[in-house]
Structure formats: C-alpha cells, structure tokens
Amino acid sequence: MGEFDLIDRFFRRPVRRAVLGVGDDCALLGNTAPMQWAISSDMLVEGRHFLSTVDPAKLGHKALAVNLSDLAACGADPTAFTLALALPRADEAWLTRFSQGLFNLADAHGCELVGGDTTQGPLNICITVFGQVPAGDALLRSNAQAGDDLYISGLLGDARLALEVFRGQLALDAHDFEAARARLETPTPRVALGRALRGVANAAIDISDGLLGDLGHILQRSGVGAVVHTDWLQHPAQFDAQSVGMSPVLAQLPWPKRLDLALAGGDDYELCFTAAPDQRDAVLAAARESHTPVLRIGHITAESGLQVLDPQGEPIRRRFAAFDHFAS
Amino acid sequence: MGEFDLIDRFFRRPVRRAVLGVGDDCALLGNTAPMQWAISSDMLVEGRHFLSTVDPAKLGHKALAVNLSDLAACGADPTAFTLALALPRADEAWLTRFSQGLFNLADAHGCELVGGDTTQGPLNICITVFGQVPAGDALLRSNAQAGDDLYISGLLGDARLALEVFRGQLALDAHDFEAARARLETPTPRVALGRALRGVANAAIDISDGLLGDLGHILQRSGVGAVVHTDWLQHPAQFDAQSVGMSPVLAQLPWPKRLDLALAGGDDYELCFTAAPDQRDAVLAAARESHTPVLRIGHITAESGLQVLDPQGEPIRRRFAAFDHFAS
Asked: Considering B134, B158, B187, which residue would you say is the last residue of a domain?
C-alpha cells in the first residue's frame, strides 16, 4: 500500500462545509467571504525528507518552503503558519540556526508564525500553512482541459541529482555539486508565479514527487491525458537569461539519466501547470512579472494516459517510478 | 531549557497581520470578517503522549480531542482539521482502528478532515484544527481580572492516576482502573462549555499539563495572582448528578497523593476559567446548557503569585511540578 492508496482508503471523505477537502495541494475553507483560506500541512522526517547532516538553517528554510510551494500551486498568498516540532533534545545551537532559516523565508513572504507545539521525540517537523485566495480563483488539480498547453517552471532534476551524489550513486565536481545541492536543500517556492497565474492557468500542482507522478494527479483529477515532449532535455534553454527546464549540470549526464532525474526525480518544488493556448502571452507575462522562468513541454489530451515522446516524437515505453513516501 | 523557555526564546515573535500569535490556546486569524479563525496545532509522540500499547481507535480519538480542547478553551466552534501522520509502516489494521476513533470524534463535533500528509517514520501524529469564533469573543488567557472567581470543569487527576498505574507506581482494582484509564485515553474536549462561556468567562485555558501549571499561564499573561482552595479534594462533590472536581476513585487515595494528581497531574483536558462574581448564575447556566459539571475552586487576586490553601485555609508550602514535554 503506497502513500496515496493509504490516504484514499483511510482518510479521504467528502467534505460538506469546506470548499475543498483531501486530495489537492491545499484545502479551501470559507465559502462566504470574498477571500478563501488555502491550507496545507507537510511533515518532514529525518532520513526520509532530509539528511541528518543538513545545516539546520537550510532545514528551517525547506520545512516552510515545501508548504509555501503548496500555496503557490493554488495561487494563494501566504499569511501565517503553525510549527509543531519534535526534537531529541533542546539543542540551542540547532534551534538558533533552524529558526533563522525558517524566519528568513517566512519574512520574505510576509508569512507569520502564529502557533504550534514543541515536544521531545525523534526529529519531526510539521508545518501547517495558511494562505488567502479570492473565492473561486484557486488553481486546482482538477481543472485541466483537453487542448491545454502543459508547462513547468524552473529546473527539474537537480535536487534528485544532489541526493544521488550524497548517496554515492553519482559523482560531480565541487562547483556543480554545490549548485545541485542548493536545489535540494533550499528550494524556491514559486509563490509569485502561482499568484500571477490566477485567472491564467487552468490547473496546477507543485512538483514534489517527480514531474510525471505529480502530473498524473492532474490527469486523474481532471479526467484527461497528456503528451510530454523531452526535446528540452537535449539542449539547455533560457527564459529571460535564466536557465529553464534542464540545468547545465544535468546536461552533462547521459540521456537516460537526464530523463530519470528530470521526469521522475522529486523534491523539485517547481510548478507544473496547464493553460489554454490562447493564454500563451498571459503565461509569459505571468512568468516575467514573477521573475520565474517557465517552459512549455507538452499538452493535455482528451484521451486518458500519459505519453512521453522522445525528441524524434516517438513514444518512450520505459517506466518511470514516482517517489512514494511509503516505498522503500 | 524547558518547553516554554524554548518557545519563548526561539519561536515567539510579535504578529502584525494575525489577531493573536504564539502563546495562547489558539492563534486567531482574520480581523475583518464577522468570524475569526481559531487555530491550534498539537503533536503527539509515542512514549511521551501515549503508550505504544494503546488501542489505535483511542489514539485517534485522543489526537483530535487534545486539539478540540484548545478550541474549547477559546470558545471556538470546530470546523475542520488537517492530519499529518508518520508511521513506521502502513499497517491496515492499525489505520482502520485509528481512523475510526478519529472520525467518530470528528463527526460528533462536525469537524471535517480537509487535508494533511502521510509519511514513513517514527510514529508521530500532528493535527492542526480550525474553529470559528465571533470576532472579539474568543476566550483568552490574558483577560483574567482581580476579583474573578476561578473554576474548573469535570474531574482532575484521574488521567495521571491511570498513567501511574500503567507505570507500576500505583495499584487499583480493575473497575477503578478502567474508569481512570478512560480519562487518560479518551478525554472529553469541553467544546460545548467553551462555546457557552463566550461573553461569560473572562479568561480560559485547557488543563493539559496540570491545573497549577496551566493556571500559571493565565496568571502570567493576565498580570494577576490566584488563591486556590483544596476543600473540594476532601469529599466527592456533584453538579447536576455528575461527579465534579475529584472522582470517587481519586477520593480513595491519601491526601498528599490527591493533591499531586489533581493539582499537577496533567492530561485532564478540562477547562480552567475565570469569571466575575456577578456572572455566577451565567456560569451555572452555561454549565447546564453544555451538560458539563463545573466547580468554583478559588479566585483571582491583584497581587501576583499562586497560593494553594489547605481545607483549614492555611497556605500549602510544598512545590508542585507542572508537566513539561522536555523534562525527563
């Protein structure tokens, strides 16, 4: 039983009072006010979401970043968060660094710590974040339309690449490793892009478990399929002088490895979204306004199924495993 | 460094956008709408908040109950919650029982599960709960007034008594143990009482770490002191045919043990609240309306300090240790 089966079997129930319940990036509460509350909760466990050797300041950043990324995927503006923290012991040096990293990112987004809990126990960080979005404007996983363009933001695969170097499965020179490691340890939540895509994109999700797996959630919830091109993994590309799609580091790797890392790596915390073809100019304007590079990588189809095409346009038949927090 | 020092030093900062931040039972968000959101988050760790042998259905109940108790202390109506769950493995029998206990209590309070997270890791349950309260009506820790009466709801000490039996520090006959154990494993959040006390009580807190310790938070935040009587620990009392203050089981124990358990036991999840003397009839009406027994046990003083009086009215000079999630 994987993580999503587990949620479906034991914890997914229809909601009556909430606007949106279990199964999207955020829940939505408050259907009467002009603004709705978007809510998301993520739990980070040592060894599964971060390495025990990570700088606590980077851990504080990442613990909030993964939650802000869920708000970004809904197009919500961050407002506040709660922090529940289990620690083996009250280590002042650790807490100083952790809280610095956490508050630096929180302050950059005007997102306030309003409550929480601390207890002794195996290291565990649970943040619940609250954002606001005009009623009816939240970006959902369930609204992709056949014919939509399919986009990603930023760079995919580098976080997973860094993880494989940490695990000794790959080697990189020091400079390249630092670049990849920053993507793993201090991801950038795409809050400004999500906000700019309100009224422009039809569906969105944040890429935390690998592009194909997370895109699969959009397809399932929207009852559609998709074609994903991979020509963007042949040559590094630029959007407004920023690398987009594949980093120069990833471009050094053999083709099959690039596919694995970019399409099914995980921990990217970029956005995957769809928009109607007549919104192409609006998508580019949203990307420029939010200083976030975006790349069009495919389209949504009426027929179900997810087809990945090689640069010659032929279907790639191999399987890609999405990251599962219950898989070993 | 204890739990509260840790929070003060690393995580308490003034809020600018929220109505109320770290340091009360709930945070309050949304100062423009007619209703405010009350938010609380609690993390439960095996071995510290529950025993590994506990029935998962009771654990599901308790994980939500301790959060609903925080809403009760603010006088908020439960609306929704998120659940983040770390599990060593996806055990279907465990998940079935856990989700049953959780949803039974959630349904009884009309509180919907709207989102969350599941991951593999040492067993850890983090629930964040959302309630609604009319703007300005939330019960706070900081509003106790000199001259206020001091009240508790329900029974104190039995949860701690059961814990001491589990630890082999005390023995009880089977019937009495079951009664005490139910108080430990399936506490009753006093949501209806909290709601009924809106506009009646001046300050409130839920008793999770022991009466004197939690009352201390009210005194500190309100800048006042209190006198607590203990004559209610001499003879079992009744309110509308329900036991109140001390259970018949606790009444069997020697006097010093009763004091320890009732005044500094922890895990009671009753309310401690203050109200002006001219509100006595209103307090009794709130108790009857909510079918919750209450007992007046002392009063608030302008002078700081917490004085516990024996049944002869003499100060008790011994120390009572509040439960601390970072103390060993």
From this structure: B134
Per-residue pLDDT averaged across B43-61, rounded?
89
How far, in Å, CA of A154 to CA of A190, rounded? 9
Count of structural domains within chain B: 2
pTM, 2 dp: 0.91
Q: Which of B87, B111, B134 is the last residue of a domain?
A: B134
Does B181 lie in the same domain as B285?
A: yes
Shared domain check, A157 and A123: no
Q: Which residues in chain A have Cβ-Cβ distances shorter than 8 Å to B29?
A: 37, 79-80, 114, 130
Task: Kindly state whether residue B106 falls inside one of the protein's structural domains.
Answer: yes
Q: Which two tokens stand for residue B198?
A: 């809106």
Residue of A nearest to B2 (CA): A90
DSSP state of A239: E
Q: What is the pLDDT of residues B69-117, one digit of tens each?
A: 999 999 999 999 999 999 998 889 999 999 999 999 999 999 999 988 8
Rg (CA), chain B: 19
Are residues A216 and A69 part of one domain? Answer: no
Residues A194 and A268 both lie in one domain? yes
Q: Are residues A232 and A148 in the same domain?
A: yes
Tell me whether residues A11 and B49 touch, CB distance under 8 A: no
Distance (Å) from the alpha carbon of B4 to chain A's nearest alpha carbon: 9
Q: How many CB pairs under 8 A join A and B?
A: 225
pLDDT at A327: 46
Domain of residue A125 covers 3-134
Does B200 lie in the same domain as B54?
A: no
pLDDT at B328 over 50: no
B58 with B149, same domain: the answer is no
> Cα-Cα-Cα-Cα dihedral of B178, B180, B181, B183, to 10°?
130
Asked if B114 lies within 8 A of A22 by C-beta distance, the reply is yes
Structural domain contains residue B208: yes
Are residues B54 and B202 both part of a single domain? no
Q: Is B267 helix (H, G, I), strand (E, B) or coil?
A: coil
Spell out, as residue ranges, where chain A has pLDDT lower than 70: 1, 4, 31-32, 321-328
- 8 A C-beta contact, residue B132 and residue B20: no
- Alpha-carbon distance of B245 to B267, in angstroms, equals 15
Question: Is residue B48 assigned to a domain?
Answer: yes
* Angle at the Cα of A93 from the Cα atoms of A88 and A98, rounded to 5 degrees: 75
| CATH code, domain carrying B305 | 3.90.650.10
Predicted complex: ipTM over 0.85: yes
List pLDDT tens digits, range A107-147. Answer: 999 999 998 889 999 999 999 999 999 988 999 999 999 99
d(CA A95, CA A101): 10
State the Rg of chain A over Cα. 19
Tokens matching residue A268: 């990217």
Tens-place pLDDT, residues A228-275: 999 999 999 999 999 999 999 999 999 999 999 999 999 999 999 999
